[in-house]
Structures are given as C-alpha cells and as structure tokens.
Amino acid sequence: MPRLEPGMARIRVKDLRLRTFIGIKEEEINNKQDVLINLTILYPAVDAVRDNDIDHALNYRTITKAIIAHVEGNRFALLERLTQEILDLVMTHEAVRYAEVEVDKPHALRFAESVSITLAGHR
Asked: Which is nearest to 66 in space by CA: 16, 114, 118?
C-alpha cells in the first residue's frame, strides 16, 4: 500500500457484510452466502479539508451503495472476479489514486475462519 502523503486522505470501509451468490458448487450456486468486504481508498483531500464541503470530498456513501447494489444483484463463480469488479467500481471515481479491495468468504474451508482475495489498483 502506498505511503500516505500530505494532502491525501485514506478512507477505510471495514467489514461490509453482504449476501450474494458466490462459488462453483451446486449449494453455492443455489444459495446466497455472506461475504465481508474491506476497502482502502486514497484520494487528494486538500480541497475537502480546506472548504469543509462534501462536493470536494470523495463520497464513500455513494461508492458503498454502488458496491452493495452490484454485489447483491449479481452472481460470481470466483472470489477473484467479485473482488476485481468491486475494485473496478471504486476506480471509476476520478479522484481515487489508489484502492485496495479485500473480499472474505467466511467458512469457505472446513478448518478456516475465511478465505480472502485482495486486489489493488492505482493511477
């Protein structure tokens, strides 16, 4: 993850719990499962800090709503695909300089709490 430079802000969305169709086994295809999503987003926040104005900030609520609609409204065979599609949604916002998306699939393995995939993008 890039170092946080002066004037940049780091937004973290932690443990966004959604339900979606994820997996390749029959029971996964037929039944929604929980996924946990964690986002880290870096963007220049000088104007937002100076003006105290939402129009100059990156609106994490807008980004989160888009992620919720996309994840809950689609089906995914692989965690890699789901993670990439979420990253693509985040990166559509021009202000985003760096984003990291981690998606956990709880209880994907018998003796593990979860399995996760992390992908990152930058401009």
From this structure: 16
Nearest to 67 by CA among 95, 39, 44, 42: 39
- Whether 3 is covered by a domain: the verdict is no
- 31 Cβ contact list (under 8 Å, min separation 6): 21
Model pTM score: 0.93
Q: Which residues make beta-bridge pairs with 120? A: 100
18-52 pLDDT per residue, tens: 999 999 999 989 999 999 999 999 999 999 999 99
Q: What CATH number has the domain bearing residue 19?
A: 3.30.1130.10
